[in-house]
Amino acid sequence: MNGLLTKKRVLFINTAIHTTSTGRIVEQLGKEVIRQGGECIALHGARYNSRSAIPTHLIDGKWNEYLHGMAGRLNMHGLGSVIATHRLIKKIRQWKPDLIHLHNIHGYYLNYPMLMRFLSQYRVPTVWTLHDCWPMTGRCAYFTSQECQQWQSGCLKCPSRSDYPKAITNTGTSRNYELKKRYFGLVQNIHIVSVSEWLNEVVGTSFLADKPHEVIANGVDTEQFKPSESDWRKRLGIEGKFVVLGVANVWTTEKGLNDWKTLAESLDDRFALVMVGKTPCELPQPIIHVKKTESITQLSELYSMADVLVSLSKQETFGMTLIESLACGTPIMAYANTAQKELCDSKVGFPIPNNDLKAVVERLKQLIGSTELKDKTASCREFAIAHYSLQHHLQQYMDLYRTLLG
User: Does the pTM of the predicted model rise above 0.90?
Assistant: First the structure.
């Protein structure tokens, strides 16, 4: 496959590089561009980055993001970083890409009206991968848990100002909606990619509906996430227990933090509950807390040692932990909401009616001593490889690049 993008230059723009899910996706895409004979560079913000295997360029320092964050509290997220965005545009002009691939353009590091005005004039093919709903709303990145549908007609009073990106006022929410509608509509040669069918449906009922849009699901590296032997059960003192695992980057109410606390009160000592990731508070006993790790080896071992991975998230545009668990051979259980209902196939998992924690408890109790888990375990890795492999994910993007480049 070497040479398929020979001499083509692809420029990425994202909040993060090499860390967080979107940062890792950008790096994987960049490495594939290079493998296929092209060149790449990733322009990124200051907060979420670590040493990368592809060429990168820091747009501006943390001080810029701090000032932009203050503006965000006044409901002006995406409207700061004027100097930083001038530098970003200058870098694009200097590097002269053949294709630009946007990912998260929110995150307090660039000015989206400036970027969109530039792209509307620069006229190179542009791909925009959406990882959340921020581009279609007047403020928030997710609206499902608030049961808010204002984004379909114009956001007025936001019901979730305490969620990312936090704001202390509702003033400007409708202005933000109209600004996004105006500036995101300027770029004629933009192709939108959603990471799930659910998110693609949101795009199709938003002001972005007239743009070409399709689904390319996130992929998991099944050579790294795989069934793994470990001594985690012994280390955690849970040998002989039925292990229920939960994994999140940061645990919040939307990720199901409160439901996990209730779950711990509802299960007897035959069960061991293990939660991986940062938490804003101490977790009650008997929950076992494993602090955040970005070690894929450790994550694979944790997934592999569990009997079932449970996601009690209120909203997901994809649900990467579900696929990682399947790649490691561990069945999944999840609320059948948003994109999770696409991933929690009955062949490999247990879909639960949304927010029905009682059903979760009853289903877990039924699994002890049942053959259901064993029957599903045999299909988990096969399912992940067939539908969500990293190789398939990368190939879909390379095919899209070649189509757009002509």
Answer: yes
